[in-house]
Amino acid sequence: MQTNRSPLWALGGAAVGFLLPFLGLACVAAVCLFSLASMSGLASTGSAQSESHVSGPQSGPAVAVIDIDGEIVGGSSGSIGLSSSAVSGDIIPLVQQAASDSEVKAILLRINSPGGSVVASDEIYHALKGCGKPIVVSMGELDASGGYYISMAGQYLVANPNTLTGSIGVISEFPEASQLMKNLGVTVAVIKSGAVKDMGSLYRPMTDEEQALWQKVIDETYGSFIQIVADGRHMPADKVRELADGRVFTGRQALALGLVDALGYEKDALAKATALGGINGTPRVIHLAPPALSLVSALLSGRFNQSILPENFLSDLLAPKLEYRWMGQ
């Protein structure tokens, strides 16, 4: 007897073998973390305020340090430290906190990111632009695409000589599994209101018309990126466009091209932030970070399982995204 199976069921079945090792590791991690929580007493619910660590003088004018570390994504993490992403909903409150603190005279933004979400990158950029404080960027190993977009909020950019930066551009990927579905014997009936309503569908190739339509979306978003860089680096848009073919540059190359202001290290960026903030002597340095959610709180709130394997993991993995992201990472 033949059973009707949905396309998603068939695709999910094909992916099970691939995902099983990762699911096993996730279960092991869950057990280990639960054991650690029991031993260390992580039963608190966690503070709604950001965490901060102060170095240098314990009072007086300060430089706030904020990290953009990992892929840039939207939303809020609600995690317990398992995420390696830079989440806009976690970072923007830190920017707002620094902006509202009268003792914070400047912000040091430490970036180590391949970029990511177009919207999340833009949200963080605009939060920084509106904070009213001088911003100095210290680039780590990688400050590319969306990371570089965010850097344009800074008045002064310091790159390590070996930093990879740039990758100015936009990308979308549309997974297409029509041949896989054919091999599995799965067909899909689509009822739609318009000819391109299922544009980018997993179950069929895109038409030339659809690719042309999506290219317009890419071109518009790309144009915005070009203008952000032109404004941030005080360069003609045409000059930026010559550099914006998606390639990355070393810190040395970026300096020669006018994409950064200096080569150096975090201490050099801190010294510049101190000067721009009008601070005399050694500044108080406040390292701001999102509040940590305890393991017990995560379990009670249902966020723990989401941080290990989100409910819509498969659909999110396959869904097309509009990204400022360097594909080398």
Question: Can you walk through the features of this model?
Answer:
The protein has 329 residues and is α/β, with parallel strands linked by helices. The chain has a domain at 42-169 and 236-325: 2-enoyl-CoA Hydratase, Chain A, domain 1. It has helices at residues 7-40, 88-100, 118-129, 146-151, 178-184, 208-233, 237-243, 251-257, 266-276, 295-301, 303-308, 313-318, and strands spanning 51-55, 62-69, 72-73, 86-87, 104-113, 115-117, 135-144, 156-159, 164-166, 248-250, 262-263, 284-289, 323-325. The strands form 3 sheets. Strands 1, 2, 5, 7, 8, 9, 10, 11 and 12 form a 9-stranded mixed beta sheet that branches. It has a two-stranded parallel ribbon with strand order 3-4. Strands 6-13 form a two-stranded antiparallel sheet. Helix 4 links the parallel strand 7 (135-144) and strand 8 (156-159). The longest helix has 34 residues, at 7-40. Mean pLDDT is 83; it is low at 33-48 and 300-309.
Please give the CATH class of the domain at 42-169 and 236-325: Alpha Beta
Structural class: alpha/beta
Q: Which range does the strand content fall in?
A: 15-25%
CATH architecture of the domain at 42-169 and 236-325: Alpha-Beta Complex
Largest sheet: 9 strands, mixed
Poorly predicted ranges: 33-48, 300-309
